[in-house]
Amino acid sequence: MSRSDDVVDGVKQMILDGRLEAGQRLPAEKELAATLGVSRGSLREGVHALGTLGILESRHGDGTYVTTLDPALLLAPVGFVAELQDDAAAFHSVRRLLETEAAGLAALHIDDDALARLRAVLDETARALVDLPLDHERLVDADLAFHEEVARASGNPVLAALVGGLAGRASRTRLWRGLSDEGAEDRAFVEHEAILAALAARDPDRARLRMATHLLGLEDSATGVWAR
């Protein structure tokens, strides 16, 4: 391992040990380098790497801090990795597994405010579907909002972050623009309505079934899109 790797591992251990906490300012460079047994150059390299990972953030004129360590922040690179892959279908299959479980959990934990937000998203989708010409970006925005809201309602921030990473804007834009099956957009809207109904009924089994059916339908409609 390089000395900068020692910094990464050392800071990670300090966080795990409780010597550093979310939002806390790091010790002065000289002190931290001595604690980790590395040179200041290696320390800077390691700190830069930890910044890229979303673990540390540098504030101009105020030092370096541990971030919130929020799962959405730390798992953000998953989306970048997913967008670089040629085998989009494989990532969509993983997304389907995660979102199906997220829907089931959401049915158990969702509150009235979240249901109201989902209702508002579907109302916006309905308006977008009747406006011509069809605005795919508007549909993508609504689709993102719907699925992210369901994932957040699961009550599991790690699951929500993974869903957000694997089903980000780039993959959804590619999917929606590639749907060639006539009526696919309207059918997706009806399926979203069915998912919302299952969530409102607090029925986890039906919510899982509705979400899985919806995402499988998108896979079928997008046959050939994944290869482009």
TrEMBL record:
Residues 1-69 form the HTH gntR-type domain. SUPFAM superfamilies: GntR ligand-binding domain-like (SSF48008), Winged helix' DNA-binding domain (SSF46785). The lineage of its organism: Bacteria, Bacillati, Actinomycetota, Actinomycetes, Micrococcales. The keyword Amino-acid biosynthesis does not apply. Pfam families: FCD, GntR. Keywords: DNA-binding, Transcription, Transcription regulation. The keyword tRNA processing does not apply. This is DNA-binding FadR family transcriptional regulator. SMART domains: FCD, HTH_GNTR. GO terms for molecular function: DNA binding. It comes from Cellulomonas humilata. PROSITE patterns: HTH_GNTR.
